[in-house]
Write a structure and sequence with these properties.
about 100 residues; 2 helices; six-stranded antiparallel sheet; alpha+beta; single chain
Length: about 100
């Protein structure tokens, strides 16, 4: 029953962020971890691309089948961008390079 609810949440586009004292973040609705290091974590979520910036960031728990990620460290900012916007920027950048 739990697995069925999780699959339904992933299909309906539910995305949640729980931030506790700017030190821990628990995220659901995560499709993929695009990249991460100690200062930045890029996630593809149900609501677009999410960039988490901070210091000493660690991805502690990652379950892509459930769409859940836990991040610890000093979290300075969370910023979203639309998937379409990101792909348009990449295409225009490549277009300018090859003109």
């Amino acid at each position: 029953m739990e697995d069925r609810r999780t699959e339904e949440r992933q299909r309906t586009g539910v995305h949640k962020v729980y931030l506790n004292a700017r030190k821990t973040a628990v995220l659901s609705g995560v499709r993929d971890v695009l990249s991460f290091d100690a200062k930045e974590v890029y996630l593809e979520t149900e609501q677009g691309i999410l960039l988490i910036k901070g210091d000493e960031l660690h991805v502690n728990r990652l379950s892509l089948e459930k769409g859940e990620v836990d991040v610890d460290g000093r979290i300075d900012s969370l910023a979203y961008s639309d998937r379409e916007e990101t792909s348009k920027k990449a295409a225009s950048f490549l277009g300018r390079m090859f003109q």
